[in-house]
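Holo prediction — zinc ion.
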Amino acid sequence: MTLNLKNMRNFYSTNTFGAIRSRWSNNWSEAFFKLLFPQACKSCGVIIESGDKGEICPSCLAQITFLGTPCCPVCGLMFLKSGGDSHPCGTCKSTPPFFSQARSLVRYSGDVGTLIHSFKFRGDLSSLVTFGRWAENSVFSSLTPPDYIIPVPLHAKRIQERGFNQAALLAQVFFPQQKNKIKHFLYRRKNTTSQTQLGGVERRRNLKKCFALYPDVDVRNKIIYVVDDVYTTGTTVNECAKVLMKAGARCVEVATLAMVVRENE
Ligand SMILES: [Zn+2]
Ligand SMILES: [Zn+2]
């Protein structure tokens, strides 16, 4: 975590002082505390009045689409325009993935992107509190109880640069009661270039044989979650699912923070 004023404030407001604050019951001390350490919206930076509602302001929260039904029961793609029943989407019908179902909490948008960016690239870990809240009573409740929860691995070199694997931290806040099931069974064989600028075909080529299981790992007959930050085309999580299914897993399900849902779908 880089040490700058913003992070210092986030640290104090969510850790040491947060604990002290919770013990203060009288209103004036609370007000005084907020004056000293005002909480800013993680997305737009405006000072949050209510303080206790979360880490983003109500108007930014209102811009975020929480995913639900009707959706594709396989990849979780929400049909934003049609009001009909859930049904498999064209992509899942023509090319069934290796995972049996995937669910994402929110639709990827500018605001969500800002939160993810500050978390991933600026080491602002306080956004995790928000993501954890989003996961409570969410679409993740439709997933099957797992034996193992496996974060999409980063290459060792990338972990060294960043200091953490964002998927591993997400797994912890998504499934706080099941932290003991989080296992780092997969690793990345090659340090792939960033997927962001690539199209579907290039993504698949880029990630081909990219993931592997550690040799001493046994996943036979296990129900496994794969966790990642963003579901764009599903190629990354599908490559992980492929490795796990080929190693004998009973089924693989996917939990991601955000999904890219295009307007016409
Ligand atoms: Zn805001
Ligand atoms: Zn689908």
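READOUT: The domain at 62-259 is CATH 3.40.50 (Rossmann fold).
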